[in-house]
Amino acid sequence: MTTEKKGQAGIILALDTSTAAMAAAIVNDQDVLAEIQTLAERNHSVHVVSHIKQMLKESEINESDIEALAVGNGPGSYTGMRIAVSVAKTLAWVWNKPLVGVSSLEALAYGAWHQHLDANETTYREAEDEHWVLPIMDARRGQVYSSGFALTGQVEWSRWLDDGIRLMKDFVNQVEQRLSEQNGKVRSISLVGDLSLHEQEAVRLQQIGELAGVAVRLQPFIQEGQWIAKLGRIRLAAGLTEDPHTFIPNYTQLTEAEVVWKAKQEGEAKQ
């Protein structure tokens, strides 16, 4: 059985622990061979290796069958991001496989959009206007990790806002400003991810959309490993691989300890 699997080109092992969900998958050119999604943020480091072993067993493959590793590199939980990236870097080095980093926010957006598209196959296929997908992850104190993506005619996927940490109200204001500049080109907006802590601003975005004649859909979505793999395949094909010795996550902000240390260093420099 394993020998037959080796004939399948492009098997990718994907992993993301940037959120409370550990998302992992093994995907070939066409199919998801195995996938795991667990909601146990504090136990990611305990279970991640055993979950990878479980997926390899379910897929009836071993490390020699894998073409590359794709890892979600954040932004997100500081400790969480480090777990997946550290494991992926180690496996890429030990197995001598290419490593690609994927924006965890982009994978969230990409997966949520495909989930909606599958459920509404006939609704959007003929659309030529823009559809925006706005992924968010809670970053505490009213903040979110966020970015912005657009599709045109279900063909072209592009980014229009970089990953970053923003106050949710500022993010909504930023979307409103950009929407006012598009001259009616935007047909729909999907706000996706963990929306539970930002309902007030999500509803405000819906109201903004209503005034602009744009449908705003609120779509809760939990990270899935297959989308890390599929975006990773695109980056692999483009030659956008990472050095496993120097690759680091996209932290987007300093930790509290780093802020204190930096302030201390600056204070000493002024003395």
Keywords:
globular; 27% strand; 271 residues; 2 domains; Nucleotidyltransferase, domain 5; disordered N terminus; 5-stranded mixed sheet; 9 helices; alpha/beta
Written account of the structure:
- This protein has about 270 residues and is of the alpha/beta class.
- It folds into two domains: about 1-105 and about 225-255, ATPase, nucleotide binding domain (Nucleotidyltransferase, domain 5), CATH 3.30.420; about 105-220, 2-Layer Sandwich (Nucleotidyltransferase, domain 5).
- About 40% of the residues lie in helices and about 25% in strands.
- It contains nine helices and ten strands.
- It has helices spanning about 1-5, 45-60, 80-95, 105-120, 120-125, 170-180, 200-210, 225-235, 255-270, and strands spanning about 10-15, 20-25, 30-40, 70, 100, 130-140, 145-150, 155-165, 185-195, 215-220.
- The protein has a five-stranded mixed β-sheet with strand order 3-2-1-4-5, sandwiched between helices. It has a five-stranded mixed β-sheet with strand order 8-7-6-9-10, with helices on both faces.
- Helix 3 links the parallel strand 4 and strand 5 (about 100).
- The protein is globular.
- The model is unreliable at about 1-10 and about 255-260 (pLDDT under 50).
Q: What can be said about this structure in brief?
A:
The protein has 271 residues and is an alpha/beta fold. The chain has helices at residues 2-6, 44-59, 78-95, 104-119, 121-124, 168-180, 199-212, 225-237, 256-270, and strands spanning 12-16, 21-27, 32-39, 68-72, 99-102, 130-138, 143-152, 156-167, 186-193, 215-220.
